[in-house]
């Protein structure tokens, strides 16, 4: 069995690679980072190390690297014969992957190679559906579009495992022991079911529970921690006042999840506690700069901050702690993070109100704009 995975980074090697390998796949990682690709082709294997008291390792074998910029023909040929295609390169990268993916899928369909599924494992609602839209935009006529629609599934997914940036140890990846991968079965065109993946009919409760708990909580620690000069997630959650803030924020998002999806309150409490426990893992070193990365994306309308805030507002529920985290995200100022630099220059050039409106897509007269502004100024 052959899988193509776009994005040989943290979650690609540290989680998707593990599941694919354990299900008997040879994996072609497609990336743009040549040193990473060279290492994959030299070693053809790497280790996943579990960040826990008694370290465990898993050997991932039969892995190869391809560069989508310099080896386009090889990538297209490999896509045309792949049994499964997965992606974790970042939601902003999906439009960049679409042209080559479209060519590979078309070649496959024209060769009569049968159905295949493409699963985007990004932290976003409907990422595979978004990718499908970009792929269809690449088709030159309706016939090609129809052939893709008939043969290629783009099931949405939710992926959960904390995998920090790897600062040493070559291809090897240090990951937390916990993992969860949920896929919307109804979006699939093949009967392929991976062990270790939970296939569900309705994905929205899973992706919103994950994004608005794990990622909202993570964002709280990153932005509030950063504001207080705290370097890592484990250190931020160890600070009693930040932890209290985190607990309050997660109670607010749980309220939404309870009302919207009728999740059981006690189960959600347990889910929150488990996640806070994961944030406390001292065997992982996860800088607040990674977790807070791309604040423009994280402050966009349906993401982990404004997404739950607007939905709570629409239900008449106040969420003052979430408002504070959104305000802190506007103050995330990391020179190496282009999006944070952009927000800082917008704040200087356009002022607070205009920046909030432009970044969040909230309407000018939305009361949340005033609330976030008041927090930024406070
Ligand atoms: N790291 C985590 O804990 C985690 C957990 C769940 C989901 N995610 C999501 O997975 C995605 C990737 O995150 P990550 O932490 O692995 O990031 P990462 O930066 O470690 O990996 C991204 C990889 O994509 C590659 N890439 C960039 N442009 C590309 C292109 N045009 N074609 C192919 N590859 C390209 C990069 O070179 C890099 O190797 C994000 O959407 C993230 O939100 C991350
Ligand atoms: O990947 P991002 O930038 O969307 O979010 C940063 C972290 O919250 C994220 O990578 C988590 O580690 C991950 O989502 C855990 O499953």
UniProtKB/TrEMBL annotation:
Which residues are involved in binding NAD(+)? 3-14
| InterPro entries reported for this sequence | 6-PGluconate_DH-like_C_sf, 6PGD_dom2, Mannitol_1_phos_5_DH, Mannitol_DH, Mannitol_DH_C, Mannitol_DH_CS, Mannitol_DH_N, NAD(P)-bd_dom_sf
Its top-level enzyme class, in one word, is oxidoreductase
Q: What EC number(s) are associated with this protein in UniProt? A: 1.1.1.17
Which Pfam families does the UniProt entry name for this protein?
Answer: Mannitol_dh (PF01232), Mannitol_dh_C (PF08125)
SUPFAM superfamilies, from UniProt?
6-phosphogluconate dehydrogenase C-terminal domain-like, NAD(P)-binding Rossmann-fold domains
Q: Which domain of life is it from?
A: Bacteria
Q: Which GO terms describe its biological process?
A: mannitol catabolic process
Gene Ontology cellular component list: cytosol
Keywords noted in UniProt: NAD, Oxidoreductase
Keyword Cell division on this protein? no
GO molecular function terms here?
Answer: mannitol-1-phosphate 5-dehydrogenase activity
Residues forming the Mannitol dehydrogenase N-terminal domain are: 2-192
Asked whether the keyword Oxidoreductase is assigned, the reply is yes
Task: Describe the location of the Mannitol dehydrogenase C-terminal domain by residue ranges.
Answer: 203-377
> Catalyzes what?
D-mannitol 1-phosphate + NAD(+) = beta-D-fructose 6-phosphate + NADH + H(+)
So what family is this one in?
A: Belongs to the mannitol dehydrogenase family.
Q: What is this protein called?
A: Mannitol-1-phosphate 5-dehydrogenase
Q: Which organism is it from?
A: Alkalihalophilus marmarensis DSM 21297
What lineage, starting at the top, does this entry show? Bacteria, Bacillati, Bacillota, Bacilli, Bacillales
Q: Which gene encodes it?
A: mtlD
């Amino acid at each position: 069995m052959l899988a193509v995975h776009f994005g040989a980074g943290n979650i690609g090697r540290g989680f998707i690679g593990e599941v694919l390998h354990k299900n008997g796949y040879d994996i072609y990682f497609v990336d743009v980072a040549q040193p990473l690709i060279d290492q994959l082709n030299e070693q053809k294997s790497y280790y996943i190390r579990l960040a826990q008291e008694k370290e465990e390792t898993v050997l991932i074998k039969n892995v190869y690297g391809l560069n989508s910029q310099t080896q386009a023909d090889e990538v297209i040929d490999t896509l045309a014969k792949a049994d499964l295609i997965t992606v974790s390169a970042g939601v902003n990268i999906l439009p960049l992957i679409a042209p080559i993916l479209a060519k590979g899928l078309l070649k496959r369909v024209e060769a009569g190679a049968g159905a295949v599924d493409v699963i985007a494992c990004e932290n976003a609602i409907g990422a595979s559906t978004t990718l499908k839209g970009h792929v269809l935009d690449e088709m030159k006529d309706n016939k090609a579009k129809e052939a893709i629609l008939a043969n290629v599934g783009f099931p949405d997914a939710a992926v959960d495992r904390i995998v920090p940036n790897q600062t040493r140890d070559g291809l090897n990846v240090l990951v937390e022991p916990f993992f969860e991968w949920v896929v919307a079965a109804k979006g699939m065109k093949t009967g392929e079911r991976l062990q270790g993946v939970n296939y569900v009919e309705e994905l929205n409760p899973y992706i919103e529970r994950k994004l608005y708990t794990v990622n909202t909580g993570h964002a709280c620690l990153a932005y509030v921690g950063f504001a207080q000069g705290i370097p890592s997630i484990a250190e931020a959650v160890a600070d009693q006042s930040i932890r209290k803030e985190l607990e309050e924020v997660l109670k607010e998002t749980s309220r939404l999840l309870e009302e919207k999806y009728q999740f059981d309150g006690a189960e959600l409490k347990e889910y929150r506690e488990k996640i806070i426990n994961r944030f406390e893992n001292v065997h992982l070193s996860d800088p607040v700069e990674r977790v807070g990365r791309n604040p423009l994306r994280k402050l966009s309308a349906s993401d982990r901050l404004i997404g739950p805030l607007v939905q709570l507002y629409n239900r008449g529920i106040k969420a003052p702690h979430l408002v504070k985290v959104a305000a802190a995200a506007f103050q995330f100022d990391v020179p190496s993070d282009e999006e944070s630099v952009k927000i800082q220059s917008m704040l200087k050039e356009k002022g607070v109100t205009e920046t909030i409106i432009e970044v969040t897509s909230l309407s000018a007269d939305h009361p949340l704009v005033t609330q976030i502004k008041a927090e930024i100024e406070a």
